[in-house]
Amino acid sequence: MTSYTFIKVDHRPGGNAEAVRTAVSRVFASGVEGIDRVREAAQEIALMIDGLDDYQEQAAEAVCPGCGKVCCINRHAHHEHEDIIYLYALGYDLPEYQQGIEDTAACQFLSAEGCTINRTLRPHRCNAYFCSPFLEAMQQRPAPEYRRLMEILQLITLKREEMLLKFYILQQGLQPAGPEE
Description:
The chain is mainly α. It has one domain (17-173). Helices cover 54% and strands 2% of the residues. The protein has helices at residues 17-29, 35-63, 81-90, 124-128, 132-139, 143-174; strands at 110-111, 114-115. A two-stranded antiparallel sheet has the order 1-2. The radius of gyration is 18 Å and the shape is globular. The two termini are 19 Å apart.
């Protein structure tokens, strides 16, 4: 049975972000048999996320400019371990993070026009979190459209879990064998 441990990525100076990036990169660079299935799963996820872009942008345009409490805060700007795997599977690297920005400040990638990161490359939480007003705006769409959105979000979650499991199985296979007992 393959299992994995959640790795918290610390993007601050002296944190473990570079070591995490190196470990993930090493798996993709290894050319291990099966890595293409991880890449294919990531591409499927990206296509599903891209298909939601107009829907989510319309809700954001209706809700976010008038909001008094910004959900997009800097603490959420950083990609987690699973996001790094996804980005590397697509052939992308992490964006350059600005240091010294308070966690509670507005996200460093948030501009007056919205997020500066392409939706398919954002941290997963940015595409999967909906505050109540945002969710209410999306629910105003015709019921079949809203149901389809929820179905796609569930499919993204399932495909993401599949991609990660495939990656961790391959990563585990690349680990040196432990001492024999």
